[in-house]
Batch of 2 targets.
Target 1
Amino acid sequence: MKKVFERTKGLSDAHFTFCPGCTHGTIMRLIAEVMDELNIIEDTIGVSPVGCAGFCQDFFTCDFVGAAHGRAQAVGTGIKRSLPDKMVFTYQGDGDIAAIGTQHAIHCAARGEKITSIMVNNAIYGMTGGQMAPTTLEGMKTTTSPYGRDPISVGMPMDFPKIIANIPGAVYVASVSVDSPKNINKAKKAIKKAFQVQQAGLGFALVSVLSTCPTNWGLSPVDSLKWLRENMLPIYELGELKETEEVKSL
Amino acid sequence: MMDKVIMAGFGGQGIMFLGKVLAYAGMTTDLELCWIPSYGPEMRGGTANCSVILSDEEIHSPVVDLADAVVVMNQPAYERFKSRVKPGGVLIVNSSLATTDNKREDITIIEIPASEIANNLGNASIANMVCLGALLPNMRLADWESVEKTMEKLTIKRPEFLQGNLDAIKKGIEFAN
Amino acid sequence: MERVLMKGNEIIGEAAIQAGCKLFFGYPITPSTEVIEYLSANLPPKGGTVLQAEDEIGAINMCYGAACTGNRVLTASSSPGISLKQEGISFAAAVELPMVLVNVNRCGPGLGGLGPAQSDYFQSTKGGGHGDYRLIVLAPSKAQELYDYTMEAFDLADQYRNPVMVHTDGFLGQTMEPVVLKERPQAPDVNKDWIVTGAKNREKRILASYSLTNEVGEANNIAWENKYKEIQDKEQRWESFHTEDAEYLLVSYGTTGRICKSTVLNARKKGIKLGLIRPITLWPFPEKGIKPLLNQIKGILTVELNTGQMIEDVKLAAECKVPVKLYRRQGGMLPTEDEILENLEKIFQPEESGEVRN
C-alpha cells in the first residue's frame, strides 16, 4: 500500500496533549515540517516558554531548552551567541512574548538577533485557565475580565507583530492564521521564510499565528474557528507585515 | 613600614591621578599597596578623595582612618580631612584655595600655594603634581626616583606632558624642603 | 609572572578570560560596571562574546541559554541587579547549569547606596530566588583572591553543574591592588554529556525544570539535595589566622575579613589571644573551621556589614557551646581594626594573659 501521509520527522511519537480543537498541534506540525524540509532538525535548538506552548519541548525531535515565563528570547539569544552556526527558535504564547516578556521581545528584535520567534495568539491565557491576555479582544470575557475587557481600564488589545515590525532589526514579520487549509498553507510559507531568514543571517524574524482556545473560550472546536474568523481576523491584520529587500530576494 | 596617605579636593583637580602616581610608584619598587577611591554616582564635580597605602609587608586592613600624610587641595577638603592626620603626621594644604585656622600643634602643616605655582609654570592643572612634590619628602616608601620613573610610564602616550609634570613635582619638593 | 596594578572589578574580568570564559552578558550598575567594561574591551579580541542586555533579567537568561550549550559564561552585577536576576538563578540551579555570577555588593535595601556592604549574605547563601537550591558562594578579600577565586569558580561550576557566585563588594571592586596574573592550571576535565548543541547522532535532549508530577518533583529535589550535601562535605573553605591558641575568635569574610586580620595582630600586641576564621566559601558555610575550636574559645564575635546575617550560620556551627556576638557597620561604612578590637574588649572583657607579640 502506498503511504500518502506520515508524521514529519520533526515531530516525536509523543501524543499531543492539547485540548480538542486547539490549534497548537497544527502550528507545531508546520514548524516540524519546515525544519524537515530545510533539513535542519539536527542543527536546531528550540526554546520553550511557560504556558500551554511550553509543552512543545516534548513534541519536536530537536534539542530543547525550557525558559522561564517570558524569557525565551533572552535564552535563545544566549544559545545563538554561544552557537552562532546553529538554528534557534522560540515558541511562545501571546502572554509570554507580549506581556511578561515584552522587553526581551523588543530588544531581541532591536539587536536583530538571528533567531526565529513563533508567537501563538489565542487572545487568552490558556494554561492558567482563561485569564485576560494583552491580546484579549475588547469586550471579551475572561476570568480576570469577567465583565468583558474594558479599554478604559486596561486598554485595547495589542497587535504585537505590528509593534515588532517597526523595529529595524526585525527583518521579517508576518501575521498568519491556521483557521483554514488555505491559511494553514500561508502560515507554513511564512514560518519557512522566518527560518530561511535566520539561515541567511539576515536578522530577527517573527511569525504571529492566530490560534484557538476552545476550552477557555467556552466554544466547540468548530465554533472556535468560526469565532476566530469573525472576531480576531478583523482586529489582527494578516499578511507579511514586514519584509526587507534582502528577505524578499531570498 | 607603612605610609598611609589621604588626598582630597574638587573633582577635576586630579586627586585620583595624584593617588595613582603614588600607587604606581609603589609598583616600581615592588611594594604592597592599595589605591582606594571614594567612589560615587557622579563622574565629575563634587568632592573627590582617595587614599593610598604603601607598605613593605602585607596590607591587611585597607581602611585609612588616620593617615601619615593628608593632602587637601581646597577649603572643603581641608575642613573635612584636617582631623584625619595621625599625631606626628603631615598635612599639606593648597594655600591658594584653602586657609587654615586653629592649627593643630601635634602635626606638621605645610601650606603651599600649589595652584599659584602651577599657574606660574603655565599649567593650572598640575597643582596636584606640586602637592605631590610637597608630599614626597614626607614619605618613607615613595621618593623622587620612583615617582620620576612612574611619570615616564604614565605619560608614555603623551610624552609632551612629562616635563611639565616633573617640573611641578620638583617645585613642590623644593618648597617642602 | 606579571605583577600588575588593577581595579578589583577588572581583575574579575581578566580572571574570567584566563579561566576560558567565552561569553559575558550583563547590564551596567555601580559599583560593578568595570567588569562589563573590561570584558567589552578585552574578551572579543580573544574570540569571546560580550553583550549588554536590555536588563538584568535578560542578562541572566542569556547566561542560562549559553550555559545550556556548555560554554563558560559569566555575568556580574550589584545588589539591586542581582535581585532582578534571582528568577533566572533559580532556573539555572534547577537545570543544573554551570555559570559564574558576580555580586559586587552595595548596601540596601532598595536602591540603597554605593558603599560596600555584606547585606546580600542571606540572598547569596540561602537561595535568593524561589525554590530550594543553593549556590556555591566564594568570598574574596583582596585583589589576588578576586583573581584566584573567580577562576576557581568556573571549575567548581563545571564540576558540580551548579551556578557559583563570587560575592564581593564595592570596596574590593573599586580598589586597585597589585595582582599576579598567574596562568590557569589545566581545568579539570568535565564530561558535558548533557548540553544542547543540536541532536546529531544522538537522542534529543531537553534542558528544562518543569516536573509534571509531584513524584518526579520530589525525586528531583532529593537529587539536588544529595548534590548540595556532597558540596557541603567536600568544599567548605576558610582561612585560619592565629587560631591555634586563640581564646576568642573573630569570624568575618571579604573586606571585613581582612580588616579583622589587623584586629587580630593588634590584639596579640596587647596579649589578647584572638584568632580569626575567614570564611572563603559562604556556602557551604565552613563550620568545619569553627567546630574544632569550640572547646578552646570563650567567645566568638562576627564582624559583618549588615544587621547580622552570617551570625546565624556561626551560631549553628557554635552549637550553643560559646557565646556568639555581633559587631557590624552598615550603609556603606567600614569598621577600623581598632574599632573592632574595642568592641571585642567591651563585649567579652578578655584577659590580657597571652604573650605579647609584636
Target 2
Amino acid sequence: MRAFITVIGKDKVGIIAAVCVLLSEQNVNILDISQTLFQESFTMIMQVDMTQSSAPFETLSERLTQLGTDMDLTIRIQREEIFNAMHRI
Amino acid sequence: MINKGEILQTIEMIDQQHLDVRTITMGISLRDCGCADMNKSCDKIYDKICRKAGDLVRTGEAIEREFGIPIVNKRISVTPISLVAECCEANDYVPFAKALDRAAKEVGVDFLGGYSALVQKGFTVGDERLIRSIPEALAETELVCSSVNVGTTRAGVNMDAVRLMGETVKKTAELTKHQGGLGCAKLVVFCNAVEDNPFMAGAFHGVGEPECEINVGVSGPGVVCQALKSAKGAPLDVAAETIKKTAFRITRVGQLVAQEASNRLGVPFGIVDLSLAPTATIGDSVADILEELGLSSVGAPGTTAALALLNDAVKKGGLMASSSVGGLSGAFIPVSEDAGMIAAARAGRLTIEKLEAMTCVCSVGLDMIAIPGDTPAETIAGIIADEAAIGMVNSKTTAVRVIPVPGKSVGDMVSFGGLLGEAPVMPVNTCSPAEFILRGGRIPAPLQSLRN
C-alpha cells in the first residue's frame, strides 16, 4: 500500500530527520520526497510504501500525528488512492 | 504520478473548504422480520440490524483515517416499517420505533431512517396505524427518523394523507415542545420519494432494493464556492463548467469511499448521492454559492435561475464520476442548516414563497423551516399540498420538513443542535386553506403530454 505523508508548518531544524527516523523504525520505505520553503512556511510531501511496515496504518497515523503535535506541525498520512480518485480519470 | 499542487489542493479542500463524506448509509431490508407477535417482530428487527450493521461504524472510522477524509455520519435505512409492522395485530407501533432506536444505539450510528409509509394512492391498515403513531414514536426515540410519501407523478396526490400529515406535524411538535419541536426535524413528507436516499430524515430502504447495501452521500458546498471564486465575473456557462468539474472530483471521493466500505463490509455498493448538503458552519453554505454567482443575497430575483444552474451542473459532473449515481443528487436548501440561508431569512430577504419557487429546481424541497407554533394543521397541510403538487407535475422529488415551533412566533430563533442547526421562525401566509384541505380525496395524476 502506498501513501502520501504531508508535513505543513513553521520551518525548524530536524523536521525531515524526525519523520524519517519514525518511518525507518516502522520499516516504511520512502519512495520520493519534495520540500519547499516559502518565507518561514515549510511544506514537505513524501510518498511512501507501507507494504513491509511493521505497524498497522492506524498506529503509524497516530504516531505521525503525535510527532506533529510535539513539533508544532501538521503531519498527515493518507492513502494514495484518494488523490488518484480526485485528480486522475 | 500525482503532483504536489494536486496533493495540496486535496488537503485544502478537506481542511479549509469542509469537503466531507456526509454519510455512509447501510440499507437493510427488514421484510423478513414481520411476525404476528409484535414482541417477536421487534426482537427480529433488533437482531438483524445489530448483525448487519455491527461493523459499520468501525469500518467507517477506519476508512476516514486511512484516506484522511471526514465521514461525518454513519447511518442506517430500513424497509418502511408500515410494511413490516402490519403483519402483527397490534394497534400501537411505537414499540417498533423503540426497537429501532435501541438497535441504532447499540451499533453506534448517528441516525436510522425508515419509520415510514408509502401512501400515495391510499392507506393500508398498517400505513394508517404507523402514521398515527409518528408523533409519539419521534418523541420517545432519539435516532429514529420518519418519512411519509403522499404523492407520485404516476399516482397523483393522496389529499387524505396530506391532511393527516398536517395534523401529524403539528402533534409531533407539541409532543417535543420542550426541545423546540425537534421531532419535526426528524419527519419528512415526500412526493416522489426515492428508495435509495442516504440522507436523513428521509432515508428508507425501498422495496426494490437488495437485502443489504451501502449508499454514500457526499457533500462539499464550500469546495464549489471556492472553485467559483476563480471564475469570478465569467459567463454563466463557464461557471456551470467549473461546478461540473468540481462536482466530478467530489463524487470520485464518494465513489472511492463507497467501494472501500462495500468491500470491507462484504455488502454490495448501491449508489453515490452527490448532494451539496450545507451545514451551519461558515463556509459550508449553498447560499454562499448562489451569492458567489452574483446575487447580492439568496432570495433576490434570479435566485431560482442560479439554483437551477447549480443543481443541474452538480448532477452532470457527478454522473461521470460514479458507476451509479442515485438518491437525491443535487443541491439541498435547508434553512436552519445553512449559515447564508439563516442570515437571509433573519433579515427578511428570503421568504417561504421564494423557497417554494426554489424547490421547483433544487433536489428536494422545503427543508428545516421553522414556522410559528400557532400555524393551523390545515395550513401546514396546504404547504405540503403545494410542495407535493410541484413534485408531481414536474416529475421530481419534493419534500416538506417544517417545524411549527410551540410557543414561538415570527422573528424568534430556535436551535436544534448539531447538524440540524438553528433557524429564525419565518412568517406563513395566514389565509386559511382549510376548506380545500378538508375536502380530502385525491388529486389525479397529471397529464404527461401537452407539457406547457
